[in-house]
Amino acid sequence: MSTSTITAPAAPADDTRAVTMPPARKRRRGKEDQEKVAGHAPMTRPEKVRLVFAHIGVYIAAAIFLAPLVYAFFSAMKPNQEIFSMPPTLIASEVRWTNFIDVFSYGPFLTYIGNSFFVAIAGTLVVLAVSTMAGYAFGRLRWKGRDAVFVLFLATLMVPAEVIVIPMFIVMQWFGWVDTYQALIFPFAFTAFGTFLMRQFFRGIPFELEEAARVDGAGPIRTFLQIILPLSKSGVAVLAVFTFLGFWNSYLWPLIVTVDYAAHGTLPIGLASFSGLTGTRWDLQMAAAIISMIPTTVLVIALQKHLVKGISMAGLGGR
Amino acid sequence: MSNGTHTPRRGALAKSESRQALGFVSPALAGLALFTFVPVALSIVMGFFDWPTVGEKTFVGFDNYVKLFTDSPDFWPALRNTFVFALLYVPISVVMSYLLALSLHSRIRGRGALRVLFFIPVVTPMVANVLVWKMLLQPQGLVNGLSQTWFGIELPNFLADPQWAMMMVVMMSVWQGLGYNMLIFSAALEQLPESVVEAARIDGATGLRMTWKITVPLTSPSIFFASIMTMISAMQVFVQPQMLTGGGPGNATQPIVQFIYNQGFKFQELGLAAAAAWILFAIIIAMTAAQFGAQKKWVHYEH
Question: Which residues form the ABC transmembrane type-1 domain (chain B) (predicted)?
Answer without folding.
Answer: 79-291
